[in-house]
Write a structure and sequence with these properties.
Structural class: alpha/beta
CATH class of the largest domain: Alpha Beta
Largest sheet: 7 strands, parallel
Oligomer: single chain
Low-confidence stretches: none
Strand order of the largest sheet: 3-2-1-4-5-6-7
Helix content: 40-55%
Distance between the termini: 10 Å
Mean pLDDT: 93
CATH superfamily of the largest domain: Glycogen Phosphorylase B
Order of helices and strands: EHEHEHEHEHEHEHHEHHEHHEHEHEHEHH
Amino acid sequence: MRILTIIGARPQFIKAAPVSKALRAAGRAEYLVHTGQHYDHAMSQIFFDELGIPQPNVNLGVGSSSHGRQTGEMLIRLEEVIQKQKPNWVLVYGDTNSTLAGALAAVKLPVPVAHVEAGLRSFNRAMPEEHNRVLTDHCSDLLFCPTYTAVDNLAREGITQSVHLVGDTMYDAVLQFGEIARQRSTILQTLSLTPKQYLLATVHRPYNTDNPENLRSIMMALAACGETVIFPVHPRTRVRLTEAGLMEILDRAPQMRLIEPMGYLDILTLEQHARLILTDSGGMQKEAYFFAVPCVTLRPETEWVETVEAGWNVVVGARSEQIVAAVHARAWPIGEPKQLFGDGTSAMRIIQLLTQ
């Protein structure tokens, strides 16, 4: 049994870490391909180091480009790798261009495709990720769903065969690395932060970064919240902030603390000690839920409707007044959230299904 795993972006490194670990524990061979979609140290290598992921067998080095060019270049190079390696399965994660390119390259050869985090839907076809995840699901031979909602979404599209509810590998990762983060990370001391006395914000989706009006509205809201805001700035976001003339405004807002992207252990520490998280990231919405930290989603919709229905997440879009109102006026649940994303053994179930 030979599994070829394709990853390329920061969230995929996190999702893949527990599965890669379970593969090694089961004595199974994994050929790891990094597309190079995220490529600088803060967005890539530090995650391999901290999560204990083996170094990729090959890095395609595709890098940044337009969606079509990037996906096409990945498709060409992945086809060559798959033809050479002749795996039993190609394993893809999530909803990035790396995901779609991997699925298309495999299905054309043909090699069976397994999709981790199948069945997610935002129902917003303006999102590139929505097209990636829908097309990947319809290419896949095994579909590993994180929630009942994901299973239902697939059934509505006529996909019922080889669909498995396994839970969420990001929950596996939080359970495995949350305590390690508490022991090793010194980010709170480095930034002189007191637990539950700061907000954590991230913005990177094209819906926000490529829309100057949305980007300005979000930044004005963060600056107007009246609380310390820790803002790790994605490289693409920093470029857009500079182009929009917003960096100078943010630099003059004393409560706004713009920092460089950081590793997984530091992010986990900042998440679990924040009073509230504001983000357009799907993964961070879930991690907020895992840590029982309220979340304000800076998009008009979310794939993770379970977190909204449970009361721990509110979807507000990019309008300043709605963001500020959610930060100050929202009544949040008390206690531990319900266990909606599995029991921390998702990776083990995935390996059992792949190798049976």
